[in-house]
Design a protein that fits this description.
alpha+beta; about 5% strand; 5 helices; two-stranded antiparallel ribbon
Length: about 280
């Protein structure tokens, strides 16, 4: 979860779940990388919506998170929700303006470690969702990530590189995949960065690409036992249960949180913001 003021957790659900119609996806002007949240692995531009977009967006970040939004748009995890002229086909990503320095201290280099990050002031005028207690914000230990969870499987998978610190450890750390060969702690920061492990497991049939459309169609919230709220991250406005994925999920998910964030996950499931990973 991209950190913002704790008070925004309560209203973010309504903002991200508004039923906005999808517009024809041309080639947006992505702008520059002048946002405080540039290069954090998720699109913070309020003109976009989807699994690759931050749960809370503000007007100040309009056209100010070019690299993240371009990657999410090209990966199909961010859709333009504001009408604008259609330009020529997207060119390959280019170097953007110098990114703003991250505000969070570096987290320890331990797989799945989560650290607190200070929130940035913002005002969001949207209808309030049911209030939930604030919880500690979490950030990943890895460097700037690539685009979040892929929206659908493809005949040819771009496995990316082996730039993750967990590359070549025998398990797939790329959150786009599901199956027995996938790591028990997953972070959007490692998407497209564990190519060798994921390629070998995928080609062996031990993992598959998670497909949002298929998962959502197969998820029946009323039939799911969501468990309890004993997680330290319960009631923070995002789902931390690794049985699910989607735009309502936290940035880091771990097997230890399975079945322990019931209130958040039940609400987000009913809103259509998360779906089962294993469907």
């Amino acid at each position: 979860m991209t950190p913002r003021l704790a008070a925004l957790f309560a209203v973010s659900t309504s903002a991200i779940l508004a039923g906005l119609p999808a517009l024809a996806q041309g080639a947006p002007d992505f702008g520059a990388d002048t946002s405080t949240w540039a290069h954090d692995g998720e699109c913070d531009d309020p003109r976009f919506s989807g699994p690759g977009v931050a749960g809370v967006t503000v007007g100040a970040d309009r056209m100010a998170d070019a690299t993240d939004c371009r990657k999410a748009f090209e990966a199909g995890t961010a859709q333009l929700i504001e009408a604008q002229g259609t330009a020529a086909a997207l060119a390959a990503p280019v170097a953007s303006a110098a990114p703003a320095a991250p505000v969070a201290p570096a987290a320890p280099s331990v797989k799945g470690t989560q650290a607190a990050q200070p929130a940035a002031p913002a005002t969001l005028a949207v209808p309030a969702a049911p209030a939930a207690p604030a919880a500690a914000a979490r950030v990943a230990s890895a460097p700037a990530p690539v685009a979040p969870v892929a929206a659908a499987s493809a005949a040819v998978v771009d496995y990316g590189s082996d730039s993750s610190e967990w590359a070549n450890d025998g398990e797939c750390d790329d959150r786009r995949f599901v199956g027995q060969g996938v790591a028990t702690t997953l972070d959007w920061a490692n998407i497209g960065r564990d190519a060798s492990d994921c390629r070998a497991l995928h080609e062996a049939g031990q993992i598959r690409v998670w497909n949002w459309t298929e998962a959502q169609a197969a998820t029946q919230c009323a039939a799911i036992s969501f468990g309890d709220d004993v997680s330290q991250f319960a009631n923070n406005g995002v789902c931390d249960d690794p049985r699910f994925d989607g735009r309502g999920m936290d940035r880091v998910i771990a097997i230890s949180e399975s079945g322990h964030d019931a209130a958040d996950c039940l609400q987000l499931c009913s809103f259509g913001a998360i779906a089962l990973r294993d469907y």
